Amino acid sequence: MKNQTRREFVRGGALASLGVGMNVQRASEFWMDVKGELTKNSKQNSLTVHGNPIVPGVGLCDPQVRVFNGSVYLYATHDYSPENKFFRMDNWWVWHSDDLVHWQLVSFLEPQETFLRKPFTECWATDAGTRNGKFYFYFSASPYQIGVVVGDTPSGPWQSPFGKPLIPKGLTPTQERDPGILMDDDGSNYIVFGTWNYYIAKLNEDMISLAEAPRLIEIEKKVGPYGVGKTDDKPFLHKRNGVYYLSWGCFYAMGKSPYGPFVCKGSIVNLEDTEPDFRTDNIVHDRHGSFFEFNGQWYFACNDASQKGSQKFFRNSILSYIHYRDNGEIAPIHIGSVGVGRYDAARGKVGAADYFKIQGGYIREAPEGGFEVRGLADGSFLVYPNVLNVPTNAKLILHCSSQADEMASIEVRRDHPEGELLGHAMIHNTGGWEKYGDFMIPIDSADGSVNLVLVARGSGAEIARLQSWEIV
Asked: pLDDT, tens digit, for every residue of 237-292?
């Protein structure tokens, strides 16, 4: 493969087009070139993609996403080759994004840089945490032990603090793998891990030692990709509004303490909410998901093996919005090619709750079904960047409700809340918060796309609730 062709090939994220005929030697040569190409200049050599999968065809998998210093970092394993017949992973990756659409590979962690001290082909799942200005990259070294390295930035460079695993084989009656880190509101940090049965331990302030012996987590009404009574590997913990969520792949349970007990609620992935091109025979298998909040929005990152060129040992990663019901349970997610952080006007209505950024509002279940954005008052705004396929002389239709006493308006601006004014709609009282009306705004987008910002204007504590919008 000539250098110019290979460079274009790497930037296009098209490894899968090599097909199953690529032998091990060619795969090795390819990955050496990928590493050199992407680390030479991360800004110029990023893999730019659109929608889902987020970086197709390079084996990016087991995504654990963290928001550090206002930016998104994805800590991942990577499947070695499209020809894999088993889980071969030779190192770990860190990817970075500011918009969840454009991703840059910003660092590698090689097994030689860890307590392993030599090449290794079982570089399994990861996660990361931070404390006191330091960053900690936790990783599975095979299915049986967990290590940690330390860096001064979210992308390293990484140093091994000691020559042994943080959690060695045999510490608990489970496989010590797939670490998940919970950074709790009170400053406490926990690590959860295991297969079938999950264990949790509080971390010391140094983040590289355990403050206690790992404890077994109790889960009621277990269910997972292998049926009732079983979980999986891939445990992850996150917290929202005082509730702890323990998940394994796309299944989750809720509890009042990181130690449990947890009550299983089922899967957030189903066929009905998955676009046909993303459906597989076992749609809930090997999702290896993580949850994160960014700009006031919640997301789910997980594995996907539905696309051409992928298979169970050579996977992609996808992103979806997460919405919580009023009782705290998680609604089923939508899986599709548009993904997050971008929108397609040609596909019809967009749920208002699927914003990229919010100020001065919150999500609740809507009387008509689905979700709506409430609490919009003067100066509140919602950002929907990368709206594609906007027709000439377009009209934006807002589907919202109001019972405000005075007339209010919603401005449509380009790029940011003080950006170019594209139009506005006067919002009148619709007869109650449960009664919706459609409000039309002519907008102009000569280039066929727009970074859409909706800004509320008016008096009172709440002037409107927005359920959806559509460009026609």
From this structure: 999 999 999 999 999 999 999 999 999 999 999 999 999 999 999 999 999 999 99
Q: pLDDT band for position 444 (50/70/90)? A: confident
Are 461 and 377 in contact by the 8 Å Cβ rule? The answer is yes
Instruction: Report yes or no: 295 and 67 within 8 Å, Cβ to Cβ.
Output: no
Q: 55 burial class (0-12, 13-18, 19+ CB within 10 angstroms)?
A: buried
Environment class of 40 (CB within 10 Å of its CB; exposed 0-12, middle 13-18, buried 19+) = exposed
The residues pairing with 104 across neighbouring beta strands, listed in sequence order, are: 96
Who's near 73: CB < 8 A, 6+ residues apart? 65, 66, 67, 94, 95, 96, 106, 128, 154, 155
Q: How many CB atoms lie within 10 A of CB 341?
A: 28
| Residue 288: both structure tokens together | 């290896």
At residue 237, the 3 state secondary structure works out as strand
Contacts within 8 Å (CB) and 24+ apart, 208-217: 208/136, 208/148, 208/150, 208/161, 208/162, 208/166, 209/166, 210/166, 210/167, 214/167, 214/171, 214/172, 215/259, 216/172, 217/192, 217/246, 217/259, 217/260, 217/261, 217/262
What does each C-alpha distance from 300 to 63, 114, 236, 471 come to in angstroms?
10, 29, 11, 26
**DSSP letter (8 states) at residue 463:** -
pLDDT digits (tens, 9 = 90+) for 123-179: 999 999 999 999 999 999 999 999 999 999 999 999 999 999 999 999 999 999 999
- For domain 3-341, is the CATH number 2.115.10.20? yes
What are the extents of the domains in the chain? 3-341, 344-471
Banded model confidence at residue 29, pLDDT cuts 50, 70, 90: low
Backbone angles phi, psi at 40, to 5 degrees: -65, -45
Closest CA to 258 of 293, 298, 219, 289: 219
CATH class of 344-471: mainly beta
**Over 70: is that where the pLDDT of 355 sits?**
yes
Find the Cα–Cα–Cα–Cα dihedral 36, 107, 61, 200, rounded to 10°. 150
pLDDT digits (tens, 9 = 90+) for 178-190: 999 999 999 999 9
Coil, strand or helix at 30: helix
Question: Structure tokens of 363?
Answer: 């999500």
- The label of the residue with tokens 């403050």 reads 211
Q: What is the pLDDT of residues 296-315, one digit of tens each?
A: 999 999 999 999 999 999 99
Nearest alpha carbon to residue 332 among 323, 342, 341: 323
